[in-house]
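User: My collaborator sent over this chain with a note saying "see what the structure looks like." That's all I know about it. Can you take a look?
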Amino acid sequence: MKYYCIGIKGTGMSTLAQILHDLGNEVSGYDDAKGYKFTQKGLEDRKIPIFYNHDHEISSDTIVTYSVAFKEDHPEIERVKRLGLQIVPYHQVMGWIVDMFKSIGVSGTHGKTTTSSLIKHILEKNGGCNYFIGAGDGYASNDNQYFVVESDEFNRHFTSYHPKYAVITNIEREHLECYKDIDDIRDTFEIFANNTSKLVVANGDNIEVRKIHYHNKVLFYGFGFHNDVVIKNVKLTEEGSRFDLYIHEELYGSFEVNLYGKHMVSDVCAAILICKELGISKDRITEALKTFKNAKRRFAIEKFRDTIIIDDYAHHPTEIKVTLEAIRQKYPDKRLVVIFKPNTYSRTRDFKDQFIESLSIADKVYLTEIDCNREDPMDYPGVTSQLILDGIPDSELIDEGSISKLKEELNSVICFMGCAYVDGLIESLKIYIANTPKVEED
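Assistant: Without extra context I'll predict from the sequence alone. Here is the result:
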């Protein structure tokens, strides 16, 4: 088959294109963004062509799919329509692939990428697997029986999936541009849960997850003693996290991971339970966890001279809160600076107060202007980053051209956050640090 992916540098579309290629299809794509994005590495490794114009030929037997960031009136979408090509929604193509394998669908408002990455890592150490992870990572082989798929609730995409196993890490208010309210969100997760044929591993500490009417086998996990699987004796240190896992009141095992924060412990628990269900022994799971490294832009730490730079995908208030708390766990004696790039006007408007509360954990807060490619700012009059800044004392706007505002913070932990690309900001900071004479202490 031939596939043409419009918006091919988007995290989801890039991953889908890589998987389609690995399964033996001929794949190419289009994108507006000519600058380099980390998501194109896998495309380049596979020599998947990326076009930036509207005059290249596309075979008449090509199936077209496109990112939701591209509107129906986009010139490239209008062109493929004029050519009479078959257009299939992104989530439907994903659904086709999910149905080809014994799939593990990992869902939740937060923690999908980390949990998917954990399951993928353990399976890779124990025979191999296919995977679709939203950080731009994808791989598939017809020789593998398992497929780990990060299952996104945005636009109800994951309701097209019918996995054998599923994880629900949590359910919160999010993507309110797509959903009416929390009940609408939970009802959609319920469809996904009941599309699962064998087992749902669900966070029983989350009240919305508990409200779902499950029509299949479910195993609840969490810190609360009312769960089937209980996380106990948690130790959070500067080196990582340790905990014991009890299944139906019996100790299953003690585990240690180089991850930070209770939310990460919860994600590890979900991954352990899925892998146990797939027949992987406790000893093999324990051994695999020792070598786990998180996905791209998930608590990615780099020391540049005396500055500790952290790059994280957090873009929802809850994610920001737990990530900043995790930084406090690892660097308890360091000053913490956060630079947050808001991604959508609707989320900024709907969660303004929660953003203010979560960001205030840091010692100093900077925001960029909102970076959104799927919403029209004219539809959100008065919604800017200033809405958040007004609620945080001493907070400021920042951009690549004003990175020198950080001149007094070069001994700090500086965390860049947001689901929009922050590479330019990080690179500007590195250049500034490199050109700043190092002050030697007496």
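A starting point for your reply to your collaborator: The first helix runs from residue 11 to 22.
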